[in-house]
Amino acid sequence: MAESIYLPENASKVEKYEVILPQIEALVSGEEDLVANLANISAVLKEAFGFFWVGFYLVKGEQLVLGPFQGPIACTRIAKGKGVCGAAWAEGKTQLVPDVEAFPGHIACSSASKSEIVLPAFKEGHVALVLDIDSDQLNDFDQSDAEKLEKLMMIVEQCL
Ligand code: SME
User: How high is the pLDDT of residue 4?
Assistant: First the structure.
């Protein structure tokens, strides 16, 4: 297994995604444990982009439960349909939130969080987990993040 990821200097955000996605695929392909893979994926995203908070919530019964993450401590349980993560679960769709204050029911684990993107991953037709990324800047995510992170979720789905 590689000990570190390769990141070109001065790469644009899209270039970074293009460089890290195959490396993530290689990283998880040799490991069958889900928690180990989600932990390393969180670490790669944090290292590559310096996100304020990045991590996973796993569907457990009627709730999302905090999984592997990088960043400050966070809410441990989220009900279906609640907050941005609960909406991604209930709707089964990416949630791109330029201003968390404007999202009805947003759950503020940290007052420093200003914008957010949440994406679901599916197993056997049902949402199994969500990836949540928070920024301390407003409007920090766009369609290119959604597109590339949806590709990442396809890699995550291979781990499920
Ligand atoms: N803001 C999220 C809660 C999780 S934290 O941001 C880590 C939400 O509204 O679902």
Answer: 84
pTM, full prediction: 0.97
By CB neighbour count within 10 A (0-12 exposed, 13-18 middle, 19+ buried), where does 7 fall?
Answer: middle
Q: Is residue 9's pLDDT more than 90?
A: no
The finding on whether 134 has its CB within 6 A of some atom of ligand 1 is: yes
Domains in the chain, start-ordered, CATH in brackets? 13-159 (3.30.450.40)
CA of 108 to the centre of ligand 1 (A): 6
70 Cα: distance to centroid of ligand 1 (angstroms): 13
Ligand 1 in reach of 109 Cβ (< 6 A): yes
Which residues does 157 contact at the CB level (< 8 Å), separation at least 6?
A: 121, 122, 123
